[in-house]
């Protein structure tokens, strides 16, 4: 799947507009078979010029960015949803790459190093070890909560089989 970046300007109004907007966009991507790689809150700023959106003029906006993988056929639906959302002043989706490089998981290298994944490990080995990590109730609850919100059925935790 190609790698995309969504950059949007939301209405200035604090977290009341931004959090639900980012959550809805991320869940839309996930529900349509995409993978969210990162979400960045770029803070509220003065707009470079006055923008008219949804019958109003705006001079301030809250910038957000989401990097994700998705099928190219799903991008027009996401753009349409953002265009109709009254919380969004402007939004654009840019294709960053045709696909992620081999061996890239989308997780920061510092995180993978901290979790004990040397760079020499293959992507498959990293994924197998990542699936075995959730063992505490707090981690499992957080993972299941996101899966339920995304409309997915939570998977049972992965347990390692004793080697004979």
From TrEMBL:
Q: Does the keyword Ribonucleoprotein apply?
A: yes
Alphabetically list the UniProt keywords.
Ribonucleoprotein, Ribosomal protein
Cellular compartments per GO CC? mitochondrial small ribosomal subunit
* Gene Ontology molecular function, alphabetical: small ribosomal subunit rRNA binding; structural constituent of ribosome
Q: Which domain of life is it from?
A: Eukaryota
One Gene Ontology BP term is:
translation
Respond yes or no to whether keyword Ribosomal protein is given for this record. Answer: yes
The record's listing under Pfam families reads: Ribosomal_S6
The record's annotation in PANTHER family points to:
MITOCHONDRIAL 28S RIBOSOMAL PROTEIN S6, SMALL RIBOSOMAL SUBUNIT PROTEIN BS6M
NCBIfam families on file: S6
For this chain, the family text in UniProt reads: Belongs to the bacterial ribosomal protein bS6 family.
| Protein known as | Ribosomal protein S6
Species name: Allomyces macrogynus (strain ATCC 38327) (Allomyces javanicus var. macrogynus)
**Origin organism lineage:** Eukaryota, Fungi, Fungi incertae sedis, Blastocladiomycota, Blastocladiomycetes
